[in-house]
Amino acid sequence: MKRIIFATNNKDKLREIREILADTDYEVVSMKEAGLDMDIVEDGETFEENAVIKARAVCEAAHEIVLADDSGLEIDYLNKEPGVYSARYLGEKTDYHTKNHILIERLAGVPDEKRTARFVCAICAAFPDGTVKVVRETMEGRIGYEERGENGFGYDPIFFLPEYGKTSAEIPREEKNRISHRGKALRAMKKELL
Asked: Which of 29, 30, 170, 184 is deepest in the core (most CB within 10 A)?
């Protein structure tokens, strides 16, 4: 079985990735499982740039195929904030419960049609020969009025999907993997890998 290092130590993200790539010939390992302890400065201006920065850095250290993603939330009314700063929004130590409540407060009085938002995921595959491949996918929705659901992480409890009448944290995991930005990007990348 071939091995891919996924440039993350986020357990939730890793579980999602392993579920989606389960039917391939690749074993997916985290940086920690690959024995890599690196701090990578993500200073790109786009999700794609940050994914490439991470994937290349880990690939150069490991000399193996590396997948890296950069993902986040863009809220149209807030000029696409938090965007590439989604994980570091309001400070790296700020928990998502706090971030979610502040975003809801910032949208107080804003009507549904102006609460449009999307989750974005860019995934880069970096290969030892220097080749990189990048895919980008989105999941469209809007920002809800309160946190709802236990099935997600991060901004999922405030990301409302009108066609389901639920937040992405209220949708079962298998369904979320099918429709999510990361799920779509991983399936697109899976085609590139195969």
From this structure: 184
